[in-house]
Design a protein that fits this description.
Layout: H1 3-31, H2 37-40, H3 49-68
Helix pairs in contact: 1-3
Length: 69
């Protein structure tokens, strides 16, 4: 196995781990929002920016791995 492929596989594993942690954090934030918050606040949903960035990075790493094979 080439060095570059090993590095990409480790990076993919790390990114997927980060994504699951971020999804757990987002779920926790959503669970902490009370039922009446939507009536009182204009912003009652957490930001999904980090999740979207991680998904994009994972997609890029997977395409790089596919090119190596």
């Amino acid at each position: 196995m080439s060095k570059k492929k090993e590095v990409l596989e480790r990076r993919l594993a790390r990114l997927e781990s980060s994504l699951s942690k971020e999804q757990a954090r987002t779920t926790q934030v959503m669970n902490n929002i009370g039922w009446g918050t939507g009536m009182r606040c204009t912003k009652c949903t957490p930001s999904f920016r980090k999740e979207d960035e991680l998904k994009e990075k994972i997609r890029l790493v997977k395409t790089e791995l596919a090119e190596l094979n």
